[in-house]
Amino acid sequence: RSMQGGLVGNDETVALTAFVTIALHHGLAVFQDEGAEPLKQRVEASISKASSFLGEKASAGLLGAHAAAITAYALTLTKAPADLRGVAHNNLMAMAQETG
């Protein structure tokens, strides 16, 4: 729970999905052998599905700050479609507060 910022409900699901997506993306570097190609393709398909899920949730615009931030990062890292990255970025910027 602490890695999810103590989130519950929809934000918890979204944040956990984003966190796992980020981990899977970073793990792709492990698949160097040709024999690992089928598994690499399955991981890439999972990342793609997760990115679609995250994009849908970002488009709904009902995420808290932590879930919105990690979702925006996951979508950017995985090079999700530009429109989804843009929505996630705009959601995050809408929450930003200027100080000073």
Total strands: the figure is 0
Question: What do the pLDDT scores average to?
Answer: 89
What's the Cα radius of gyration? 15 Å
Low-confidence spans: none
Strand content: under 5%
Largest sheet: none
Q: What overall form do the CA principal axes indicate? A: elongated
Calculate the terminal CA-CA distance, rounded to whole Å: 33 Å
Q: What structural category arises from helix and sheet content?
A: mainly alpha
User: What's the number of structural domains?
Assistant: 1
**What percent of residues adopt helix (DSSP H or I)?**
55-70%
Helix/strand order: HHHH
Number of continuous helical runs:
4
Description:
With 100 residues, this protein is an all-alpha fold. It has one domain (11-94). Helices cover 69% and strands 0% of the residues. It contains four helices and no strands. It has helices at residues 10-27, 37-60, 65-77, 82-95. Helix 1 (10-27) packs parallel to helix 3, helix 2 (37-60) packs across helix 3 and helix 2 (37-60) crosses helix 4 (82-95). The protein starts with 9 loop residues before the first helix and ends in a 5-residue tail after the last helix. The model has no long low-confidence stretch (mean pLDDT 89).
Supply database-style keywords:
elongated, mainly alpha, 100 residues, A2M/Complement_sys, 69% helix
Give a summary of the structure in a few sentences.
With 100 residues, the protein is mainly alpha-helical. The chain has helices spanning 10-27, 37-60, 65-77, 82-95.
Topology:
Elements: H1 10-27, H2 37-60, H3 65-77, H4 82-95
Protein name: C4B1
Domain Alpha-macroglobulin-like TED: 1-100
GO cellular component, one term: extracellular space
